[in-house]
Amino acid sequence: MIYPVEAVLLAVRDWRDADRLVTLFSKEQGKLTAVAYGARRPSNRLAGSIQPFAYLDLQLQSGTGMEVIKQCEVKNHFRPVREELTSMSYASFLTELVIELCPERQPEPLLFDILLDAFSLMRTRNPRIVALAAAWKIVEISGYVPEWQVCVACGQALQYPAFFDAGAGGAACSVCSSRELQLDKPAVELINTLLELDFKQPEDFSVTGAALVQAEAVLVKYLLYCLDKPLKSLGFIRQLHAVNRSRSASTLSV
Prior knowledge:
- The structure is a single chain.
- The chain is α+β, with helices and mostly antiparallel strands.
- It has two domains: 2-77, CATH 2.40.50.140; 82-253, de novo design (two linked rop proteins) (Up-down Bundle), CATH 1.20.1440.120.
- The protein contains seven helices and ten strands.
- The chain has helices at 79-83, 85-101, 109-121, 127-141, 185-196, 209-227, 232-244; strands at residues 2-15, 19-26, 30-36, 55-61, 67-76, 162-165, 170-172, 182-183, 206-208, 251-253.
- The strands form three sheets. It has a five-stranded mixed barrel. Strands 7-6-8 form a three-stranded antiparallel beta sheet. Strands 9-10 form a two-stranded antiparallel ribbon.
- β6 and β7 form a beta hairpin.
- It starts with a strand and ends with a strand.
- Residues 249-254 have low confidence and may be disordered.
């Protein structure tokens, strides 16, 4: 059976002599894997379309094995994202996060929209903050949002600074925590702002470097606990930060 589907291309890898395996995310079917036969040949009609982050209009053939890409039309290449190193790094982080968090064939229409909106925003806004906002939204949709209001150990209302406990699923007070990762109120306020950010019409706002770094650190630590492994894309982003550290300002704007 051949059926139509619109999807974002999350990942692509070589397969056999001339083919490619692609991981897609569609609004109707969620994450799925398909094979693009002959896509590694320059003359193949699929070769130019099978690119990371592309928004595709596909005709897929289902059978006893993997889906097969029969036709492919590009709705948006998101070429500026793919060709600019910083944007590409953060877009790769988002696609890897979706691959790791989302099971096969589980539709998440809101997550699909978040990916498209994030890729669009990265062309005009700070990709680091866009990716952080999108990542926290993806975590929320996946049901992993930590507890910020009360201590996860004693249940008392939190007083800041608090401390983040990934294993307990949120913040702990100074009495109950192991004091491993400090969590200040500006970082929590930033995370809440990012979760509520309207990607269709984002309002301008500023964030201090300290709050940004802390919000990122909490996210990375929490993902490491939830996934039980580090995301490969984060290693490259750390290298990128090291290169750009001397040029970083103390205050960043979205």
